[in-house]
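Inverse folding, one chain.
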């Protein structure tokens, strides 16, 4: 039995062909598998990130286009009511429960018909709970003013493929129960969000308000549908993005302990003594990965999309498997060969490669998923 503690420097350059073949076959197998997995994961995350930006452009640009078309439509005799939205709070965003709470104010300004009650004739789309308080109408220089405070619980599905580094499109849409022949809504261009607003876990990347015809909820509505379902509508959309890595770290923190434990096993097997409790150690590492998956899954709705959380943990399994195979190989080499120097070289070099790919993977995967 070779002395594992004896310090011998292995000269790989002048090693035998069998030793070179053994090392390169093992190392390249791991590098190819890990590289392929990282490339596939990054492509998936980048495509999903680009799709989220395309969705934002499609929603906003599409409705802006139709807003211009609708503005040119015949609304002769209808009172032109300018409207806007002010969002002063968004809280309790629950991905698991498909909901979020939002509070703010909508206002209306118009000339002419003093009996018009736009704030009293609005309804909100896709909300499970709503509380609306309408203020009294006022007049200022011949302009009628009215506002309504709202507190809504909105219902919305979230895309969890890039969770916990995902972006989300939130907002409110309200429409008048009065037809466009009576009243038409026009965006006054003054919609905004409160400067001190805090959105748990997110920051607002962009926002946009659009007034259009209610039939345009489906951007591909037919003209017949437009005529049959014509109500003035206003939407305020917000593109939110995760504001920190805090939640991501929370969901993967167990992996770092798992990695350290796996690296320690490789180091010990290559430099100190043989590992005879490999299966117990390996089981501990897998338990850490499973526990980590459950932490992330508990924050998500069911079913869990195959996305960043699952892929990061799958990559961790690849790392742990590579570490365990390295330990088994060094144990085998210690038993079957008299060359302690090659055995130590093999274990230490594989440890460096595995650590390098662990760092690389845990950098490129979240970076490819995050919307900068």
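Residues assigned per position:
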């Amino acid at each position: 039995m070779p002395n594992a503690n004896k310090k011998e420097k292995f000269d790989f350059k002048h090693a035998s062909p069998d030793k070179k073949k053994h090392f390169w076959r093992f190392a390249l197998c791991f590098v190819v598998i890990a590289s392929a997995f990282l490339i596939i994961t990054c492509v998936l995350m980048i495509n999903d990130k680009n799709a989220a930006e395309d969705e934002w452009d499609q929603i906003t640009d599409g409705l802006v286009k139709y807003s211009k078309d609708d503005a040119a439509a015949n609304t002769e005799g209808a009172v032109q009511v300018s409207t806007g939205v002010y969002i002063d709070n968004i809280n309790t965003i629950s991905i698991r429960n498909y909901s979020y709470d939002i509070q703010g104010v909508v206002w209306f300004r118009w000339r002419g018909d003093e009996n018009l009650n736009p704030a009293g004739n609005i309804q909100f789309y896709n909300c499970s709970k709503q509380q609306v308080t309408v203020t009294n109408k006022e007049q200022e220089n011949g302009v009628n003013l009215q506002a309504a405070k709202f507190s809504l619980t909105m219902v919305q599905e979230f895309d969890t493929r890039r969770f916990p580094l995902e972006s989300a499109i939130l907002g409110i849409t309200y429409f008048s129960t009065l037809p466009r022949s009576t009243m038409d809504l026009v965006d006054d261009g003054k919609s905004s969000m409160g400067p001190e607003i805090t959105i748990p876990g997110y920051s607002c990347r962009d926002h946009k308000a659009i007034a259009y015809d209610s039939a345009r909820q489906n951007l591909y509505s037919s003209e017949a549908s437009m005529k049959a379902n014509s109500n003035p509508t206003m939407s305020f959309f917000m593109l939110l993005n995760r504001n920190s890595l805090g939640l991501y770290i929370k969901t993967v923190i167990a992996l770092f302990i798992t990695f350290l434990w796996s690296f320690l096993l490789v180091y010990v097997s290559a430099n100190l003594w043989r590992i005879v409790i490999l299966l117990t150690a390996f089981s501990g590492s897998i338990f850490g990965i499973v526990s980590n998956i459950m932490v992330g899954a508990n924050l998500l709705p069911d079913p869990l999309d195959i996305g960043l959380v699952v892929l990061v943990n799958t990559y961790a399994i690849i790392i742990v498997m590579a570490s365990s195979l390295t330990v088994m190989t060094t144990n085998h080499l210690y038993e079957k060969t008299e060359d302690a120097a090659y055995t130590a070289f093999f274990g230490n070099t594989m440890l460096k490669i595995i650590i390098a790919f662990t760092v690389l993977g845990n950098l490129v995967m979240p970076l490819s998923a995050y919307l900068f």
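The chain has two domains: 12-46+246-369, 74-242. The first helix runs from residue 17 to 71.
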